[in-house]
Design goal:
CATH superfamily of the largest domain: Creatinase/methionine aminopeptidase superfamily
Number of helices: 10
Largest sheet: 6 strands, mixed
Strand content: 15-25%
Number of domains: 2
CATH topology of the largest domain: Creatine Amidinohydrolase
CATH class of the largest domain: Alpha Beta
CATH architecture of the largest domain: Alpha-Beta Complex
Distance between the termini: 46 Å
């Protein structure tokens, strides 16, 4: 792990050198973990050719020393950004990169004041996130385990579905089973939606009780060894009518087409289009109200986006979700989602739960 983290930091420093950036300020927790192995909740990482330093408060000094190797750890004095600015000033850096999407205006003002006029602040968007898009072998192995765990949990959750049970009961059992199986927690707030509420793509569990002849959407993900998974399955309680069967078949075919299109070298927009083309043939494309997928890794939503017009071409090591769906108010919704890893010569579906329509 030590060698792997060093290699990641070296790759980042090489990219910074191309823009003549002396040091990069890293303020996103997932990026601290990716570059240094630090999983604390407060701090800032400064990466440069001179070395890497973590500035954090007293709560995380012991944790930092235990988790990291070859990283200088400094305890902040006063506010975090005042301490970071003073560190940059003392280190005599002239050009410091930062991500303006992650540093607030007030924080940048504190940095400028503490660092002094000598430091030039260079916008450097998504420098670490760009590296994170390409998962290495250990990351893929961990994500495979996380996907399998989520698959087991969703299948267990389907077994709970019976008239009278509440969305809250199913959601609580899902998150209990995650932790029982070794996950540190859910990757996002678990979605459990019965009946008409299944038309809400991001429905959260309520006290609604399940009734016969209703759709059920279960969307969940786990965090296992810091990495996320994300899976959705749709179930019908009772004998599904013809319209629901047709819709389900359309969504399944759309997902199958998108997975087939998700190959190394394919544009993300083309993967999205593959799903929409199928739904359009069923005259259901107007009911597909979100993108086909998103990147997955240390965070549940990462680059690349699998959406209309996205020109990013998939590369080996990318992990994305494929999750087309259709939604109609008053009726419900159908979504099928799986996690997909891109390899040079194949596409691997990491999640492993059955995708055919389940009627219970």
């Amino acid at each position: 792990m030590k060698t792997l983290l060093h290699r990641r930091r070296h790759s980042l420093i090489s990219k910074l050198s191309e823009r003549k950036i002396d040091a990069l300020l890293v303020t996103r927790p997932a990026n601290w973990y990716y570059l240094a192995g630090f999983s604390g909740e407060s701090g800032a990482l400064v990466v440069s050719q001179k070395g890497t330093s973590l500035i954090t408060d007293g709560r995380f000094m012991v944790q930092g020393r235990a988790e990291m190797s070859g990283i200088r750890i400094l305890q902040q004095k006063g506010s975090l950004f005042e301490s970071v600015g003073q560190f940059l000033k003392n280190s005599r850096f002239r050009r410091v990169g930062f991500d303006p999407s992650q540093v607030m205006v007030g924080q940048l003002q504190s940095l400028r004041k503490a660092a002094g006029a000598r430091v030039r602040w260079i916008p450097a968007v998504d420098r670490v996130e760009g590296l994170r898009m390409s998962k290495d072998a250990p990351e893929l192995a961990q994500m495979r385990r996380a996907a399998i765990l989520a698959s087991e949990v969703v299948q267990q959750a389907i077994g709970l579905l019976k008239p009278g049970i509440r969305e809250l009961d199913v959601g609580a059992e899902i998150e209990y089973q995650m932790r029982t199986k070794g996950a540190s927690g859910p990757a996002f707030e678990t979605i459990v939606a019965f009946g008409e509420r299944a038309a809400l793509p991001h429905a959260r569990p309520t006290a609604k009780r399940l009734r016969k002849n209703e759709l059920v959407v279960l969307d969940l993900g786990v965090i296992l060894g810091h990495y996320c998974s994300d899976i959705t399955r749709t179930v019908y309680v009772g004998r599904a009518p013809k319209r629901i069967r047709t819709w389900y078949q359309a969504v399944l075919e759309a997902q199958t087409a998108a997975i087939a299109a998700a190959k190394s070298g394919a544009a993300c927009g083309d993967v999205d289009w593959a799903a929409r083309q199928v739904l359009a043939a069923y005259h259901l494309d107007h009911l597909f109200v979100h993108s086909t997928g998103h990147g997955l890794g240390l965070e549940v939503h990462e680059d690349p986006r699998v959406a209309r017009g996205q020109k990013w071409r998939l590369e080996p090591g990318n992990v994305i979700t494929i999750e087309p769906g259709v939604y109609l108010a008053g009726i419900g919704g159908i979504r099928i989602e799986d996690d997909v890893a891109i390899h040079a010569d194949r596409t691997e579906v990491l999640t492993r739960a059955p995708r055919d329509l389940i009627e219970i």
